[in-house]
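We modelled the chain as a single entity of 208 amino acids. Its sequence is:
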Amino acid sequence: MSMADAAALDGFIAAVGGDDPVYTGQWPRVEWQAAYNAFQAFTRGPAGWRLAPFAGMPEWLRQMVDGRAVPDTETPAPTLGRLWTERLNWFQVVDEHPADLVLWVDRPAQGHQVSAQQLRAAFDAVHAVGATPVLTVHLDPAIESEDLRTTVSIEALYVVDMVGTMGADVAAAILGWPGAEPYHFEQPSDVLNGAGLQHGHVTAWEWL
């Protein structure tokens, strides 16, 4: 790596993770490099963000998220991208690609806690009553760890209820607390638009 490339990577790490080397040093530099490679692979055009091939993500996964994933510079850690409003069943995707993916649920140090098992049960139950579950996920590199799979980190669940459906009620019963208005979006309609829905009532479980 040239001095210019190293300086560019240092600037990316500082911009995303902050100026504390102890904090940013929690992750190997090669994982920051993978995140920087992903960041550089994104381009934005009239139709939205596109993701070009790059080292650090399986090609089948890149093709699947291309056009929906966006660069993630809000999470103060190395990530490969974020998908804000996913109707895709990521639990099933992870099951189908155990050699490439591992599921993770980002949980706060304090407050409500939720497990992957609870989230999966809620996702399926919401579908079963005719409502629409929507996930926010980000993809994390894992290059020097013992597990070399890409991590699918779930950080929010949104339930879109139509008239007569009770998706929020069944999700609350499984997760253990009632949802609220979306915090990470300016308007609930942003969740609907991102998920390709025209109408519905949005209830959010956001723990980050």
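As a brief sanity check on the tokenised model: The radius of gyration is 18 Å. The CA atoms of residues 79 and 140 lie 4 Å apart.
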